[in-house]
């Protein structure tokens, strides 16, 4: 497995990344987008700035985030 790209890399530098967002996202573009990377990591970007920086997370980090969201751990932020 290769090293993941550095955090803050321009999303446009992640060649071949297939970005997707939740079907719960609204038409105002207020959402984040995720892309699986070839090394197994996951990139996250702000949909309002698709050429801006991307944050890179491990699969375990994304799994922990999604599990917490499913369990309502972040409901007080909405």
Describe this structure in words.
The protein has 78 residues and is of the alpha+beta class. The chain has one domain (9-77). The chain has one helix and four strands, in the order E-E-E-E-H. The protein has one helix spanning 59-70, and strands at residues 9-10, 32-36, 42-46, 53-57. The protein has a four-stranded antiparallel sheet. A hairpin with a 5-residue loop joins strand 2 and strand 3 (42-46). It is globular.
What's the SSE pattern?
Answer: EEEEH
Main sheet properties: 4 strands, antiparallel
- What is the count of distinct domains? 1
End-to-end C-alpha gap: 36 Å
Q: How is the largest sheet built, in terms of strand order?
A: 1-4-3-2
Into which percent range does the helicity of residues fall? 10-25%
Q: In terms of per-residue confidence, which ranges show pLDDT below 50 for 5 or more consecutive residues?
A: none
- Note the total helix count: 1
| Estimated structural class | alpha+beta
Overall pLDDT score: 90
Overall spatial form: globular
Radius of gyration: 13 Å
Number of strands: 4
* Percentage of residues in strands: 15-25%
């Amino acid at each position: 497995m290769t090293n993941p790209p550095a955090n803050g890399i321009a999303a446009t530098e992640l060649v071949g990344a297939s970005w997707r967002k939740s079907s719960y996202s609204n038409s105002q573009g207020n959402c984040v987008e995720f892309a699986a990377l070839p090394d197994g990591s996951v990139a996250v970007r702000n949909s309002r700035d698709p050429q801006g920086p991307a944050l890179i997370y491990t699969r375990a980090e994304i799994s922990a985030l999604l599990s917490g969201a499913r369990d309502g751990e972040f409901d007080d932020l909405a």
